[in-house]
Inverse folding.
């Protein structure tokens, strides 16, 4: 990335249709929940300012269409992502089983430079439904899958109740920040470097 | 008349080439010789008469203009110089093709209606030749002067009278027919002249709107003078060559306006890559203040004030002035009845579609009219035939519906695809237009009907199945048709056309996005270049617009209006793509000026939702569509939705889809 301090963190939310991607995003950014969100067509994003260690970042959260048929759009929407959030509905086994597909599809389409270490976060949403009685995916099972994929951080949330959403996104933002840091090390600090010629020749980060 | 030569052309490559060519052609046979009639005498010849095919003043095709006399007839020719090395930016298309496109082969002056002379105080004089058909050639710029001499020569051979209305218009052939003469004085907007099917009767019938247009048009005409506004004789089969020339001519005018506009808006910004020096030349600026004070510009001022984004108004005001056929009130029941014969056949479906295109229909009529527009009913069917068809379809629907209704819970357990499909539909119908009264509230039965129709459709068209966005298409259909089975058949008919939007391989969407990129390239190449530079040529930011035909961008009533307008396929099957272009063009200066990247652009486009003024955008789209003409249609690959599929190869490609 260019020779300036990174201030934009791009996060992609993926998961089956109706697991609550739009609701999670809106709950986190706007602290609101609505029953009337329409199915997302194409993609959209919201932004939120976050602060870490006295530095201000813009978290750009991308909400995408959940139906598999629209995955081919990912190429355009996923590029430059710093973190990917995989969401499933704890009341739907299918949506959990699909996490693997979503993860793989993301890695193919976004083709991050270091796929093995690209940060994912998994969210099991809708824990409020039916007082938890209609739940079909045990937490243990979800955590086991996360562990098997390189210890992906895991959260259980209710976008409707606003439960655990803030915590999940704190983690998402931190991971997004971390993912860019290695690259950043190789970037000259534009504030300290006075010689413009040096800046020009820094295409060497791989 | 003084022929001004304010600009030194000695450093101009085109000019040098033409000079060279010109001197050679005195001794050698000139490039136009072959096409001259035998025994012809050249009575007038002028070199370095040029046209500007695009908005780049630097892009210019120069050639030689001649008047040739043969017997009692006078012919006009303009042949571009061969091998001219223009600074063309349209590298895809060969110069020779382009030059051929513009070439004026011997044209009898009897085919010419009028010649308009333009003598701007700064810049070069040019003329516009308008044919009797209403079509016109691109403006011919006289870089070496000679307009007066040209007109004088014509006058020596054919009847040439100065128009009583405008001293700069010279009428070549006066009409014999008093009716035509009357019509000619109306100066119908260019739209009418291109809609060549119109009969005299329909022109007279729509005279109210003609008159309405007239005030705009005539005042505009007297300021800048556009041949495209001249009326035409009704000639239904004009050669496509002429049409394409007219199209390009219109482009040249539009882009000229764009140039002036842009140079005003960005006048100070010399670093702007889209501003060549020529753009800043105030060559026609004297006409601008008048234009801005046109009454018709109110159209744009009427855009709701909540629009926080400044539009790109001037360019479009002018575009609207050139072609904007005023929108009409929706068609009423009384009008509708006049389209039907005693047995209920639509007598002239073209007329009907045209009428609906310009104003839509009143809501109460939609239930009756939409099935025709969607192809559910043949325009030639009688009341009795339709009644019979209804009863058959009602039964057919029930049979298809029974297919999934008869699946027991035990069977469903073993039928994953069915459960998944049903689950997807259940998730979507409860979030489809729930804020709209017809679908709001808990346990609204209409939501269940949406569900049943979608699930039935996914059995009727098992290969396509269900895809998100379909519920958006169905919602207004059910609201209008009320009956479940009728809504179903309308939906099925609509999906015959837009179904490919939902192909798993997204081929239908990609075809449309591709066509859109070509249309933008054609109608606004700086914007195209900007998108290219920003790596935005996939046009994914327009994905939602196209997938569900602006359903999410407008209010419910407006969506219904837009859809019935689009379904007429009146100026084009693909008007929705021109609607996209119109919106993008409206905000082009903002997009380019703020250097929007893909993300910003997507966000900006998504947030235009609810801020698009339907009537003015449709007007713009119509103008762009007419303007692009066949060149525009050529940008759209055959079979691009909503065209009907070209062949049944579609079936196999859908079968490869993973069926959901």
């Amino acid at each position: 990335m260019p020779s300036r301090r990174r201030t934009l963190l791009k996060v992609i939310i993926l998961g089956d249709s109706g697991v609550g991607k739009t609701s999670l995003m809106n709950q986190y950014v706007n602290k609101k929940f609505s029953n009337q969100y329409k199915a997302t067509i194409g993609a959209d994003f919201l932004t939120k300012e976050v602060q870490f260690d006295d530095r201000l970042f813009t978290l750009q959260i991308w909400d995408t269409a959940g139906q598999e048929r629209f995955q081919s759009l990912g190429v355009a929407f996923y590029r430059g992502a710093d973190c990917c959030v995989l969401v499933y509905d704890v009341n739907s086994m299918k949506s959990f089983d699909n996490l693997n597909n979503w993860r793989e599809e993301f890695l193919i389409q976004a083709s991050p430079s270091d796929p093995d270490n690209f940060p994912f976060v998994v969210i099991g949403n809708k824990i409020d439904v039916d007082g938890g009685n209609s739940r079909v995916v045990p937490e243990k099972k979800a955590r086991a899958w996360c562990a098997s994929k390189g210890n992906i951080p895991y959260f259980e949330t209710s976008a409707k109740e606003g439960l655990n959403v803030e915590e999940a996104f704190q983690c998402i933002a931190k991971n997004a920040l971390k993912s860019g840091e290695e690259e950043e090390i190789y970037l000259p600090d534009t504030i300290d470097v006075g010689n413009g010629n040096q800046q020009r020749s820094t295409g060497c980060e791989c | 008349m003084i022929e001004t030569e304010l600009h030194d052309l000695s450093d101009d490559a085109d000019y040098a080439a033409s000079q060279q060519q010109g001197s050679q052609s005195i001794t050698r046979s000139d490039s136009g010789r072959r096409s001259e009639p035998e025994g012809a005498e050249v009575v007038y010849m002028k070199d370095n008469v040029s046209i500007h095919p695009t908005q780049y003043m630097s892009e210019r095709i120069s050639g030689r203009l001649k008047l040739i006399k043969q017997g009692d007839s006078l012919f006009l020719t303009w042949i571009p110089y061969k091998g001219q090395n223009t600074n063309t930016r349209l590298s895809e298309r060969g110069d020779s093709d382009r030059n051929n496109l513009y070439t004026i082969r011997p044209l009898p002056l009897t085919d010419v209606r009028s010649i308009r002379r333009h003598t701007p105080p700064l810049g070069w004089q040019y003329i516009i030749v308008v044919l009797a058909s209403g079509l016109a050639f691109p403006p011919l710029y006289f870089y070496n002067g000679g307009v007066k001499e040209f007109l004088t020569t014509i006058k020596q051979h054919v009847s040439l009278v100065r128009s009583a209305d405008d001293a700069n218009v010279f009428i070549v052939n006066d009409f014999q027919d008093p009716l035509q003469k009357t019509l000619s004085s109306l100066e119908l907007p260019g739209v009418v002249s291109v809609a060549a099917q119109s009969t005299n009767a329909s022109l007279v019938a729509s005279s109210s709107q003609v008159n309405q247009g007239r005030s705009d048009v005539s005042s505009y005409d007297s300021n800048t003078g556009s041949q495209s506004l001249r009326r035409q004789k009704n000639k239904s089969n004009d050669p496509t060559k002429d049409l394409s020339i007219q199209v390009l001519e219109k482009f040249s005018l539009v882009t000229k306006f764009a140039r002036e506009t842009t140079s005003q808006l960005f006048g100070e910004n010399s670093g702007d890559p889209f501003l060549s020096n020529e753009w800043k030349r105030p060559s026609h600026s004297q006409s601008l203040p008048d234009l801005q004070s046109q009454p018709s510009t109110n159209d744009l001022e009427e855009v709701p004030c909540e629009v926080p984004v400044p539009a790109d108004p001037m360019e479009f005001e002018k575009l609207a002035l050139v072609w904007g056929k005023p929108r009409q009130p929706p068609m009423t029941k009384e009008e509708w009845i006049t389209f039907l014969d005693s047995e209920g056949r639509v007598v002239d479906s073209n007329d009907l579609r045209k009428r609906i295109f310009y104003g839509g229909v009143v809501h109460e009529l939609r239930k009756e009219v939409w099935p025709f527009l969607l192809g559910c009913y043949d325009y030639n069917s009688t009341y009795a035939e339709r009644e019979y068809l209804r009863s058959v379809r009602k039964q057919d629907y029930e049979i298809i519906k029974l297919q999934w209704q008869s699946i027991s819970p035990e069977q469903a357990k073993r039928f994953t695809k069915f459960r998944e499909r049903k689950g997807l539909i259940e998730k979507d119908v409860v979030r489809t237009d729930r804020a709209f009264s017809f679908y709001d509230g808990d346990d609204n039965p209409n939501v269940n009907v949406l569900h049943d129709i979608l699930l039935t459709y996914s059995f009727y068209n098992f290969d396509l199945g269900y895809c998100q966005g379909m519920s958006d298409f169905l919602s207004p259909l059910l609201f209008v048709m009320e009956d479940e089975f009728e809504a179903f058949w309308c939906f099925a008919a609509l999906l015959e056309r837009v179904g490919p939007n939902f192909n798993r391989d997204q081929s239908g969407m990609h075809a449309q996005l591709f066509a859109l990129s070509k249309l933008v390239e054609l109608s606004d190449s700086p914007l195209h270049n900007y998108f290219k530079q920003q790596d935005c040529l996939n046009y994914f930011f327009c994905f939602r617009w196209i997938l569900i035909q602006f359903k999410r961008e407008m209010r419910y009533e407006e969506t219904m209006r837009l859809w019935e307008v689009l379904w007429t396929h009146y100026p084009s099957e693909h008007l929705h793509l021109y609607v996209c272009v119109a919106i993008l063009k409206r905000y082009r200066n903002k997009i380019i000026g703020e250097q929007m990247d893909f993300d910003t652009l997507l966000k900006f486009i998504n947030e235009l939702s609810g801020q698009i003024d339907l009537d003015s955008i449709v007007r713009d789209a119509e103008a762009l569509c007419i303007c692009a003409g066949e060149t525009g249609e050529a940008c759209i690959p055959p079979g691009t939705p909503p065209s009907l599929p070209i062949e049944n190869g579609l079936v196999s490609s859908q079968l490869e889809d993973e069926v959901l």
Q: What stands out?
A: The longest helix of chain B spans residues 240-265. The domain at 13-252 of chain B is CATH 2.30.29.230 (PH-domain like).
